[in-house]
Specification:
This protein has about 400 residues and is an alpha/beta fold. The chain contains 13 helices and 15 strands. The protein is about 35% helix and about 25% strand. The protein starts with a strand and ends in a 7-residue tail after the last helix.
Length: about 400
Amino acid sequence: MTEKVKLGIIGYGAEGGMYAGFFAKNDERLDQNVIELAAICDNDPAKKEKVAQDFPELPFFDNYLDMLESGVVNAIVTTVPHYEHVKMGMDALKYGIHLLGEKPVGVYTKEVERLIAASKEYSDTTFAIFFNQRTNPLYRRVKELMDNKEIGDLQRATWIITTWWRPQGYYNQSNWRATWGGEGGGVLVNQAPHQLDLLQWICGKPEKVTAKLQYGAGRDIAVENEVNALLDFGNGVTGSFITCTHDMIGTDRFEIFGSKGKIVVEDSKRLTVKKLVKAEEELSETMSMEDVVKLFMGQMNMSDYVEETVEEFETVMGQQHIDVLNNFANHIVNGEELLAPGEDGINGVRLANSIHLSSWLDKEVDYNHDKDLYLDELNKRIVEEGKFETKA
């Protein structure tokens, strides 16, 4: 066990700045008995001045390898562009540095597999993924309900999450944003990775995927910003995932239909659970014709058939991120179970890749698709952009 986690933040942008801010403010929610901020790294010269102002005594590095070699840190978090996640992560593990990888863990499954292999080779290190929504009490409650089969067996899962509106100026802020070669895609790799993880964490992995995407809908970008994906979980169980970044009004509704009821999550705040008094199939077989007539006429008392509960959840700013940092540190120091082991990160990447590939090939694809085919198709689009090197 390690005496204390000495964290290095690589990338001092919005996300890295937020994490550093927890330490700067001595946030009482942060378990500083097991974790401290030890250094910051960024290759932007302007960030060096900013860090000097914010943390005058803190070591600063403009090269992450120098940080890894310094002996100042024994753990890092990677708040950098997506394609840098895997390389930096693998280098950290080789140096014996614990890794808390930002989402997505990588852009394509082939590179993520290399990172997972490295984490197993250097097994004395901890590899975790920053899936802060797994600490969200609301979604932990939904997972508990599904694990306990409170609404029976899964029949259908539908998530509409279109609350990611982004104006053109957002995409214009850097030349790597919303590109195949610089970012690896659009809404699927930028805004939606948490939902792609939660959907599988709660409902399980699909077997096949069919998707229709729009690229640059209403925006001057090459990547997807409108997604409609149909998921096939096998045995007649289906799902759908709809997301976009050009709906200024937006909807966030996660609906899970089971053989004994339904779970509805609205705006990631309100949880409604509706349980049938008997399994739907049994009600179908035993309902009298008299009650059927009442149903047709809108006269049926649904409370005789459905028990409903509603729970409200409040999001406390920063709490979920702090919970991840605490869990990561307590795993290293005290052996606490990880909430989001790093290798879980490949599931969301694989689903995003499947959605892309289905759209590119205009056909249904296996969830466990040909990873080399995906990379070939991705590289075709990188070549067409003409701004970045292809990937391997």
